[in-house]
């Protein structure tokens, strides 16, 4: 994660069912679904003003840290999150082993 994003807090916006970070009034976010044991990440999005800044990667990494700290398992349905974990295989440790694409990570 780029250092300029490290101090930006991750917000779990339960009303919108998304994890989000705000940069200069613009949002990068991940839509999620949650159970008592798992958090499924569905879709990552960054507003056009944040394109190419690393904001999407930052919200993914902060969300993965949140999931790990919550001691839940991850279901990476979002293709961006899935690709992020392939690029950073140390995060496979939080993926639920029963996830259909687990062996491709």
UniProtKB/TrEMBL annotation:
<protein>
    <submittedName>
        <fullName>N-acetyltransferase</fullName>
    </submittedName>
</protein>
<dbReference type="InterPro" id="IPR031165">
    <property type="entry name" value="GNAT_YJDJ"/>
</dbReference>
<feature type="domain" description="N-acetyltransferase">
    <location>
        <begin position="11"/>
        <end position="96"/>
    </location>
</feature>
<dbReference type="InterPro" id="IPR016181">
    <property type="entry name" value="Acyl_CoA_acyltransferase"/>
</dbReference>
<dbReference type="InterPro" id="IPR045057">
    <property type="entry name" value="Gcn5-rel_NAT"/>
</dbReference>
<dbReference type="Pfam" id="PF14542">
    <property type="entry name" value="Acetyltransf_CG"/>
</dbReference>
